[in-house]
């Protein structure tokens, strides 16, 4: 588990924001309970003594017995390796055992321990079943799983194959339906993004790093571009929708990830010696000057978007809109 995975999974499994998760993880690190939480590595170094890490957790009543199975029944830890390494820090893992934590600290620590133990244990084994049903000439298809060996699922309580389980139809040729219902329904809009979804998209498009994702999300929240609903659903604010509509109306990609992603790529190029700091600085300033000038030339489109989305009257100042040079932060 690297930093991005910790942020995403804590959002999904624990309903904690990325900022809260990282604050807690850093506190656990400074107390010596977990490894350094800011890492891009998901490959365990060969020299790491994984068996000793598992051994430190054997006394816990919640997962101690599972640790014994890893060490004794399954011939020791056998992690599925990832594909990334920053050559600096290992994947996030527990350092020492504790059962004295409280609240969200305890929840994050427990999640990190359980995730580590699941990672170094055996895969679960299941069989996928597809059932084709013919009822009076109408064809139906059902899908499900039957679990053969639970293995890592025994310790990783955040994932349940039982939600997908289906009975064994291998010997069944005919059955009597308990009911046949005709239900009215309609199409629905896409669901709101969660923080986990947003972090995945930021990672995919090269926005931010493992160290800055949480800060970026907190920034758009504090500026009220987005609001949080049901603890993890991100709801766009009217100001954000007005800016996106206005920038899209200008015909360039201020509302898209391209500009920021290009800067992030340039920063990596500096680190790896392909570009100099001065070269990148000059290129980026010139790019943003051009974008700023294009925005100023079409600022009336931002004004119209603001009127439309915020339901306000546009400013009448001879074409300048209601926007000054310092309002675009």
Write structural notes for this entry.
There is one protein chain. With 329 residues, this protein is mainly α. The protein is built from eleven helices and four strands. The strands form two sheets. The protein has a two-stranded antiparallel ribbon with strand order 1-2. The chain starts with a helix and ends in a 19-residue tail after the last helix.
What kind of sheet is the major sheet?
2 strands, antiparallel
Order of helices and strands: HHHHHEEHHEEHHHH
pLDDT under 50 segments (min length 5)?
Answer: 316-329
- Helix share of residues? 40-55%
Strand content: 5-15%
Query: What is the arithmetic mean of pLDDT?
Result: 87
Specify the structural class.
Answer: mainly alpha
Count the E strands.
4
Q: Compute the CA-based radius of gyration.
A: 26 Å
Number of discrete helical segments: 11
**Bulk shape:** globular
What strand order characterises the main sheet?
Answer: 1-2
First-residue to last-residue Cα separation = 34 Å
Provide a short characterization of the protein structure.
The protein is mainly α and about 325 residues long. The chain is about 40% helix and about 10% strand. The longest helix has 21 residues, at about 275-295.
């Amino acid at each position: 588990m690297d930093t991005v995975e910790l942020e995403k999974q804590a959002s999904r499994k624990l309903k904690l924001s990325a900022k809260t998760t990282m604050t807690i993880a850093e506190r656990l690190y400074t107390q010596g309970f977990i490894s350094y939480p800011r890492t891009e590595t998901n490959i365990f170094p060969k020299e790491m003594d994984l068996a000793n890490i598992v051994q430190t957790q054997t006394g816990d009543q919640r997962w101690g017995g599972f640790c014994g199975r890893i060490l004794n029944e399954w011939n020791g830890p056998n992690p599925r390796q990832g594909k990334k390494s920053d050559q600096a820090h290992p994947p996030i893992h527990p350092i020492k055992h504790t059962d004295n934590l409280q609240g969200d600290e305890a929840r994050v620590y427990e999640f990190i321990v359980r995730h580590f133990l699941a990672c170094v244990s055996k895969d679960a084994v299941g069989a996928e079943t597809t059932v084709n049903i013919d009822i009076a000439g109408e064809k139906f298809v059902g899908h499900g799983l039957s679990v053969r060996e639970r293995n890592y699922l025994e310790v990783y309580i955040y994932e349940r194959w039982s939600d997908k389980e289906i009975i064994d139809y291998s010997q069944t040729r005919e059955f009597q339906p308990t009911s046949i219902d005709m239900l009215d329904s309609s199409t629905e809009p896409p669901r709101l993004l969660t923080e986990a979804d947003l972090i995945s998209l930021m990672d995919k498009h090269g926005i931010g790093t493992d160290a800055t994702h949480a800060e970026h999300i907190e920034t758009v929240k504090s500026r009220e571009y987005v609001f949080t609903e049901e603890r993890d659903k991100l709801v766009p604010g009217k100001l954000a929708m007005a800016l996106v509509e206005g920038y899209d109306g200008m015909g360039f990609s201020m509302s898209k990830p391209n500009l920021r992603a290009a800067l992030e790529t340039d920063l990596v190029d500096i680190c790896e010696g392909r570009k100099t700091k001065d070269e990148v600085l000059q290129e980026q300033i010139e790019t943003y000057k051009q974008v700023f000038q294009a925005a100023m030339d079409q600022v009336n489109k931002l004004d119209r978007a603001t009127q439309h989305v915020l339901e306000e009257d546009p400013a009448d100042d001879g074409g300048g809109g209601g926007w000054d040079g310092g309002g675009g932060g």
